[in-house]
Structure formats: structure tokens, C-alpha cells
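User: Here's a protein and a ligand (ISE). What would the complex look like?
Assistant: Let me lay out the input and then the predicted complex.
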Amino acid sequence: MLKVGIIGVGSMGTQHFLRLMNKIHGATVTAVSDINEAHAKEVIAPYPTVRFIADPIALINDPEVDAVVIVSIDSTHEEYCLEAIKCGKYIFCEKPLSASAEGAKKVVDAEIAGGKRLIQMGFNRRFDPAYEELKALVVSGKLGAPLVAHCAHRNANYPAQYDDVVAVTGTAIHEIDTMAWLVGDYFTKAQVIFPKCSRHSKNENLHDPQIVMLTTSSGMVISCEIWVNCQYAYDIRCEVLCEDGTATLPRPSRVDVCTNQTHYKGMTTDGLGYFAEAYDREFQAWADACNAGTYCKAAASAWDGYCAAVTTDSCLKSQKSGAIEAVPLTDRPDFYID
Ligand code: ISE
């Protein structure tokens, strides 16, 4: 049984906690840490075997913790990954791996120096059945080579502190990792374009929506619309244009309603619920791999986390310059080739 320590039990961390306690086979949570002690104690109260450990570094070093799930605020991920690598413990790290490409590189270098792949990144869409089907079709070549993709990442409503940086490092990063994985290529150029700003944008530090344009090394162009206060629902879209046809991510199946001369399907605002199956599958794959003493090949590695951080750094640069910025990636080291 894999003994897991979780750092951060906000809304996503709490869901990961409940998932590991109730759904995932071969894993259990033994300890939890959070800056909000009262809240963390409420979350674990129904589970008397789970301890609260105030200091995340102590949690990582605890002998009753074999593996660490990092769901704390983004700026802490790098430090906790480095500590867990030092302890030789398995890590499930929510994105981003670090707040900067430089920080992400330190984590990659530490993992390589330790000689064992310990990190699985929480890029959940790699485990979403709809995305898996889309990727399988695109890479099969049945539609010819992919040329262009259009993605949309829409959140209904975000807290006022959400800004342009998080729009890239917290939201666009999903499109960045997903599209690199889906088309099996990486980016050489990135640009962020600011269209007219919505009146629902909650402060002057957030331009909403924005469009992230990515060019891959084969010349494919990918547009990612990032709209975090779209108001109407959580909505994820992806259409890939190939030489002989197009492939579109299916919408979640919902009841088709006809009433009052109107025809509609409901939508949700709950992003965590939208991808619940993907989260379940990525955690089961993680627990199985850790219990087998290895890593999950289907999941994103620390190197993928680093590539995403290099790309988000270029996007942040472009938000300021308005220009097309280079994505300065080097070749994948052998350590990360499966
Ligand atoms: C958040 O951090 C996520 O991971 C969600 O999947 C995404 O929809 C949201 O925009 C991010 O802030």
C-alpha cells in the first residue's frame, strides 16, 4: 500500500485527498499539510488514520510517507519537488513544476542527478478518454499531417486576484502540454495576442480573453484562446485541421432538452468535475507505477513540466513585448526518453 502525503488541501487538493482515500487502489493518505490548519483538520476529520503535519518539509521527510502529492500554491512546487527528490520519494506535482523555466530546470537536473524518475506532473488531460481518442486519430495519420489546431480554455468565473501571469502559467499551460503531447511535437515560437478586453475582467492586471499562438518545429500553428471569466460555463475545445480532414474533441455527453420551442444541452461550471475521470485515471496510474517501483509512461514527466515552463516563460515575455518570442528548448535528454 503506497503511503501518500498531500501538501495543500484547497479545492483541488481536497478532491485528490478524497480520491486517494476512496477510489484509488493500492494507495492511502497518511499525512496532510496545509497553510490553513483548521481547514485541513476539517478535511481529514472523518479519517482518523490521517495525520496533520504543519511543516510540508517535515511531511516530505516523514517515514510514514512514501510518496508526495504537491497541490500547494504554484510558487512552492519547486522547493517541495527538490526536497522530495532529496528523500528519494515519488512525487505527483500539480502544474506548474516551477514558477519559471530556470526553476523547473533545477528540478530536472536534481532528478537526473538522483538517477531515478520520481516525478509525475498533473497534466490530467493526457488521461482524458476524449483527448486520448483525438490524439490516437491524429497520430494514426489517417487524416494526413496536422496543419493547424484551434483550442479554447474557458472558465466561468475567476477570483479577482487572477492575473495575466496565472492566465498563462495556470490556464494556458494545460493547452501547451496537451497540444505538444497530442501532436507529438514541440514549440519553437510563442506569441500572446490581446483582443478587446471583456467588461467581466475583474482587474487591470488581467486581460481577458487572450490568445496564445504557438508554432511547432514542423510548422504547425496552434491558437489557444484563454478566457477565464467567460461567465457561461467551463468549456474546453480543440479542433485539429489535418491535410485530409478535421478532428474535433467531443463535448461531454449531456441530456438533450427540448422545451418551449427551444433545444439545448446543459453545461457545467465545475472544471474539476468535468475532468473527474481523467483525474481518477491519472492517480490510479501514478499509484500503480509507484507500487511497481517505476514511473508511468503515459503521464507527463518533469521534462514535460520543464518544456511547459520554457513555453510559458516565452508567453509571459510576449505579453509584454507583443512580439513573437522564441521558445528556447533543447533536446530531450536520454533520461526522459522511454
Ligand atoms: C486551474 O489551475 C486548473 O488547473 C484548471 O484545470 C483550469 O481550468 C484553470 O483555468 C486553472 O486556473
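Summary: The longest helix spans residues 164-183.
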